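Q: Predict the assembly, please.
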Amino acid sequence: MSAIQLSSPSASRVIPFLLDLARDPIVWLIALIFVVGAMTSQYYLTTLNLENLMRNVAVIGLLSLGMTVVLLTGRIDLSVAALMIFSIVVGVVVMTEIAPLIGSRWLVRGNTYAGPIVPVILIALTTGAAIGAINGIGVAYFKVASFIMTLVSLTALRGFNYVLTDGHPYYLKAPLYQWIGDSKFAGIPVSFLLFLLVLLVLIGFVNGTVRGGRFYAIGGNEKAALYAGINTRRYVVLAYVISGLCAAIAGIVFTARLKSVDAPLAAGYELTAIAIAVIGGTALSGGIGSPWRTLLGSVAFAAGLNLLAIWGVGTWYQNLAIGIVLIASVGLSKMSRKKSKS
Amino acid sequence: MTMNTLETKMVEPALPARPADAWRHLSIGAMSRAAVLVALVIFGQAIAPSFLSLANIHVILLAVAAIGIMAYGMTLVVITGEIDLSIAGAAILSCVVGGLLIPTGSAVLVIGATLLTGLVVGLANGALVAALGIPSLIVTLGTLGIGRALANIVSGGQALYPEGLNAYLWLGRGQFAGVPVPVVLLVILGAAAVALTRYSTFGPALYATGGNVRAAKLSGINVVAVRVTVFAISGVCAALAGMLESARLSYINPAGFEGMELSVLAVTVLGGAALTGGVGSISGTLTASLIIGIVNNLLNQLGVSIYLQQVVTAVVILAVVLPGIRQREIAK
Amino acid sequence: MLKLSRRHLLKTAAALSVLAASPLTIVPAFAEDSVHAVLNGLIKKYSDEAKTGMSNGDVSALFERDGFRDYLDVYPVGDLAGGFVWKPGMGASFVGPYSKLQIKAPFTDYLPLPEGPVLDASKKYRIGLVFHGFNHPWLISLADTAAWEAKRHPNIELEVIDAEFDDNKMGQVIDTWIAKQYDGIVLWPNREAPMGPPVDRAVAAGIPVVSLDRRTSSEQISSEVLGNFYANGLQQGLYLKHAAPEGNIIFNRKDLGSTADSIRTGAFLEAIGNTPGYKVLANYHTNSQRTQAFKSTADALQAFKDISVSFNTGGEEAMGALDAIREANRLNSAPGGKKIMILANDDAREVLKEIKAGNIEMVSPYTPLIGDIGIRAVVMHIGAKAGLNEAPPKLIMTPNLPMITKEKMNIEGIETLTPDEWPYAYGPEVSG
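A: Predicted assembly structure:
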């Protein structure tokens, strides 16, 4: 796969990688979107719009990356969007509960969180990993179907988001949070850089290590993987932990942009994350896909929607387009795969 | 590769409809569900004196009628190893398309157009899944969005009122021998679905398609036809259930049925259907929808906040699903 | 900067409005007998009474539990901009560009703008309206009035986008408009917290922003066109007090934490908090959905045989409650064989039909027909930026509207109107 070359670039590998890239329909689709965008709107290639685009990619991209790893093992994670809000809520709630113990008060009037933000981030990441682990254990050890296990998590977490916040928002205005949400580094939004960092780590792990390769083995043929001596259960739990961590990081990026967290936010984003992974070529049956292709999927998705938004296309027609593109992209890749086989 | 796209291949692939196995599995799952149902009824009567009153039984049954009918269709789809996320989109598009004919004043036309639209959506799903081999999760996720978008576009986002269409309203508000019509339909369709799955030649074909596609094909079963049929049935069930709700409120809301697909799926799985295919029963689905209906009714009677209800519902699903799986493991 | 809480900021904003419009204080003499002033006076009266204490333990407990005081204290109540006095009958009639329904918008003379080109007639002004719910009758009507006002001025180009109740998407739409260098933005924010930052970014980019009805957490926002939630909930309470000194109430409320729920329910509780005869039986959040209100009411009817009042924060909820009561054959099941009183908000045509039929007791109008004010306000801000005119006030109150009842009544000085006297209803006509 192309991504393997990317993780250890050398001159001899760059050229085949580029050739691979040039043959990839999704790359052409992205190029087409940008060319059409540049031709039809003077605003499409402006710095501001490209920054918007990168920020949009960051959140959905992070969710889709975690989803991709789970899908590689032939499973699914419906809890990601609820978890992304839940992890931040837990971070804030835990810190505000701790505050009185050390004689402080971190939730000031108006529900603004005034305590230290780094512990909130750490608790959020821990929560993401922990819920991921619970999902994974339920699926791998208790054999609950992944769709059900994570649907149950989705329902419960959405409920908890309300129970823990009483429906009130928490305002998060710490400087570090502002930096993550609004700042740029070398002209690129920090949130997008965070996404790229996670992407590189995942490419390195999933496509560059033996352990990472086991996700493919499990998704490709689980029984064979088991007979080959792979502790499949442990890797399934690991996949969910990665997904949970990605959801928590997505939550940080998401709430840093909004400078607040609110129970009902990001409803339905789990389905978007699945759609993006699939548009990027990840197969729901497992074993096929890669973080790198999910990057392409999320760029294609966000760039397409951004173009429709620049054109001022109504939301209903945007949704219609998403549905058709989703079915068509999978249908076409199915057909091309059949062709290449025959 | 089979169509069991989502699930682990660690679990033994379900065998093509071996009645003895199927019955053993069903009885274990059915027992735990029945136990939960009985416990809920006893608990309910203990804490809410009017729980077993005829009026409250009507309330519970009316509340589960639509979700139960949708879940019948979903169960058939899940038994074949597929999934149908489009039901809310199919329901709302069907109701809106039917609703556009309200000015004709003909309830027959409105009802016919509603059911026909559901059938068309179901056939489209079935064709894309069975003929082109696109995973059903993707197809129906796509048609969910498309259905909702088209419902908005054709209605202009405006609610429609089937006022004066008495035959249509009767579907939601009428009674038949003292029983509310939606409940009658829930029972009749349940009986029909049981007959279809257990006592017709379609039944074995259905379970075989979900259990082991290759074996099914080798034994001469037309799996494409089976898949298209179950999606078509699911589309019609969605349209009918949507119509019952719309008639009950005399109100067709293009923004309606939000998130219904996941509730219906939860009921289906709670009823014992496995997403790996080959396993599931209509009676289990009906029991599961009653469990959810009773839980919601009781929590509302107790005044538990809707947000906590979500958490409780999640716990109930796990509590019912887990023992079944454990026992299946032990039995192996 | 960090120490400034939202509530603190809102208080500052409220204080500013004292300067602009003297809320809850002396009312200019010429407007004293207007509906708006009468209702503001009653709001102050009952709010003050509630602050000194609530004698009804049930009501007080609910009031405390959900922290209504925090919300009510910062919700601006004040006079209308430019000394405007609204009287029933005012406004313009037209066909809604989106709903294709006949509309009479009540406030078209408020902060008026003459037909024809605005500001610099040689320039084109691009304005964006972002809201949620192009398939929700209330919200379509909001967009209708905005589009109507925009069409009156040939050099305004209006883009209308539905963010489908995704606050993050609404932020993205605003960011896109910043990139497209729009001249002005009008928004209907779903929730306060998430919409503050995008609004701040737009204002920082020099684009005037006006919010409609609900609020954002932005302190930089150019203007807020405010609804009259306070008068809504208060009138529901006053009606109940007038109709019956006692009653067992079930609540169908909106999303916990939403402004509409906090202010309406809070004001209702303030109004009845010092009458000992009311009991809170059950309290549901049905999130503006008719089907959910239907289910909770159906279940409550089984749990309680002595329900006498159904309080609803919205029209959707009231319709759902009515359908459930009707289905259970319990219309007249309140103690003593009396009718269950349904109290509603939102003057949808279907709700008025039920008022006429005597099935819903009263409705506090909450008109969506305020989009035009937002367009006019944002145009004035664009003009003020170019030095062409004065800017409108930061807080633009909309006139308090009197409740609608089947028969004409006078309740604590409020002259109620009958459905036939109310030409401003929105939403599809219901026949039959």
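Residues 90-228+368-397 of chain C form a domain with the Rossmann fold fold (CATH 3.40.50.2300). The longest strand of chain C covers residues 277-285.
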